[in-house]
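User: I'm new to structure prediction. If I give you an amino acid sequence, what do you actually give back? Let's try with this one:
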Amino acid sequence: MQAPGDAIVRITKTTICGTDLHILKGDVPTCEPGRILGHEGVGIVEEVGTAVGAFKPGDHVLISCITSCARCEYCRRGMYSHCTTGGWILGNTIDGTQAEYVRIPHADTSLYPIPQGADEEALVMLSDILPTGFECGVLNGKVQPGSTVAIVGAGPIGLAALLTAQFYSPAIIAMVDLDDNRLAVAKRFGATHAFKVDGSEVKRIMEITGGKGVDAAIEAVGVPATFELCQQIVAPGGVIANVGVHGVKADLHLERLWSHNISITTRLVDTVTTPMLLKTVQANRIDPKKLITHRFGLGQILDAYDTFSRAASTKALKVIVETDGEKARAAQTDGEARAAGRPGTTPADDWSYDLVTRTGLVLHVRPVNSQDEAPLAEFFRGVTPEDLRFRFLGGIREVSHDRLVAMTQVDHTSTENFLAFADGEKAIVATAMVACDPSLTMAEVAISVRADYKHKGVAWELLRHVARFAAAKGVEVLESIESRENHEAIELEREQGFVATAYEDDPTLVLIRKELHGS
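Assistant: Good question. You get back a string of structure tokens that encode the predicted 3D arrangement of the chain. For your 519 residues, that looks like this:
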């Protein structure tokens, strides 16, 4: 606490913003080295200053990315982002929300009460990206019924602009991006057209607008090329609404645009629309939760940054970083302890964990025991024939008794077999077996997922779990032998830093390796 108007909030859920990546690239010089990043999140009020009247300890609150005193000249004009004692300071000039606790100045006017029963995970999107896409893109772009809109950049901010632009029923909302996955998401979210940047995007936008261009060109990336693209597609009398964070100069082509009656707007979000958006979400008129693709614990924040920064390969939109809950804290503590070679704190110290996949699926993971042969046999009957072939590198219809014995009678030191159970399921939904060499410097992993639980992030989380287990054992290299036809597994492992090389003994196989570096 530094001022009477401060509040201390215990963070329960936060996220990573594209602006955080800009900071790491050096695009935001006001943010000094050592700063705790993050300007979004929800939490529980822990302590309030003597001047705070709207909140008390125990209140669940939404944290605004913009801090507002509500008294200065700029705040009185609704420009909270330029508050003389606030503005965008969280994760910029003061420590931010990617932590267990955060100090919120001007708490009465910088926090919002969370209604009872609200989905707090969804409300994290209201800290920044939803009001940013709406205010800086849709409102500044003057989107209106029947108008034509192009959003350049289908990342989280661009998709937030897409969701909120539909409040005004424009005739055309075209999304432009380099990434096929994000364009497919944009179509699902309501875009009328989706164009990949391949040199033909300007021509195609002109075709759908009768050669005029769009009434609103919303720039949602923050690089010179996308700003120039907006200049090429904006119609006479239209608006270029810049949303992206620009770290280098961008050209303005007045030699072409001087006579086109266009407007160019820039803005840092003021969050003046947050109360309205909160009501809209509560009324189920918009669902920001569908922007969330991955979930992590606070102890996995570096993994979260890695996933978010490699969105093209990981298909990440918004990641949720959760700090609350006894299980999450126990898992984090155990992970840190085991990585340091100390015993964990969960019962039996056996690497039993609750994991949460990118789809929100809760997995209860535990090591195998000698009583698991029958349920393991039943599990493999639910694995597709193709995946059985990939798992055992041969054509088998049923896993033999001898194989099942080998998978259940493990020593839990050099060999381990993790079984995963979905929340509410008694049957096994996935297994991950890891076998170390005698020196415990190299280990091989093999993962199988039941057919009805594929494509839910199960294999991803189990592979991460096995990697942490192996690293805690002192294993230096983790390997997997895959059929060359098992493209799904190879791609998943590559996304987690594995490198594929030829398998010398069999040209139909590929060796996947990752150096763990004790991490």
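You can read the tokens as a compact description of the fold. Here is one thing that stands out. DSSP finds 19 helices and 21 strands in the chain.
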